[in-house]
Design goal:
It contains no helices and 16 strands. Strands 4, 7, 9, 10 and 11 form a five-stranded antiparallel β-sheet that branches. A three-stranded mixed β-sheet has the order 8-3-12, with no helix packed on it. A two-stranded antiparallel ribbon has the order 1-2. A hairpin with a 6-residue loop joins strand 9 and strand 10. The chain is mainly β.
Length: 191
């Protein structure tokens, strides 16, 4: 079968896709992968103090070259993490990123998750100045009862999944009267 008139694109993890190149009969195609990008930033608490140890994952990614007038490319392969970082200043750098728009989720044990805004990454460049703030979050309190309304003690409570990358590490137990207080509720909307 002839492929004349279609376009070829080269893609691999950790590099920008090549430009679409038209397939021409008798021609040898040279497909050149683009340079990857990177994100540098800092994770701090709500008092602007650096978080020295944390995890970050890619919550969402929209490729800069997901589709063209020539049709869709293969779905880009992206390592979504999470990745662990340890730095006394709370800094991180995530290299070998495909060009596109990213949203990152940061997490540490016992605190609610926090998301970055949309971060644009371009081929061959480092997007700097990303700041993710891990807040203390809110609190949820109440009572757990059985089907007859009697208090139930020693029941574990936790938040449901608020991220596709990291699990909430916040939990609590009811006391003998069925009362609980669950601290560390996410302070932003997670859908």
């Amino acid at each position: 079968a002839k492929a004349i008139g279609c376009f070829a694109v080269a893609q691999m993890s950790g590099a920008a896709a090549s430009e679409p190149t038209e397939v021409v009969e008798g021609a040898v195609l040279h497909l050149k992968l683009g340079a990857p990008g990177a994100i540098e930033g800092v994770v701090v608490d709500d008092r602007s103090s650096p978080i020295p140890s944390f995890s970050i994952g890619i919550e969402s990614f929209v490729s800069a070259k997901s589709a063209t007038a020539f049709g869709s490319y293969m779905k880009p392969r992206v390592d979504r993490g999470p990745r662990s970082f340890a730095d006394p200043q709370g800094t991180f750098r995530w290299d070998k990123l495909l060009p596109g728009d990213y949203v990152l989720t940061a997490s540490i044990r016992g605190m609610p998750l926090a998301r970055s805004g949309t971060i644009a990454v371009n081929s061959g460049t480092v997007t700097r100045g990303v700041r993710i703030v891990l807040g203390t979050g809110g609190s949820v309190s109440g009572h757990v009862t059985d089907a007859h309304g009697a208090p139930v003690g020693d029941v574990e409570l936790a938040f449901d999944t608020v991220s596709s990358i990291a699990e909430s590490t916040v939990s609590a137990r009811t006391d003998a009267s069925g009362s609980y207080r669950l601290d560390g509720a996410p302070s932003s909307v997670f859908t």
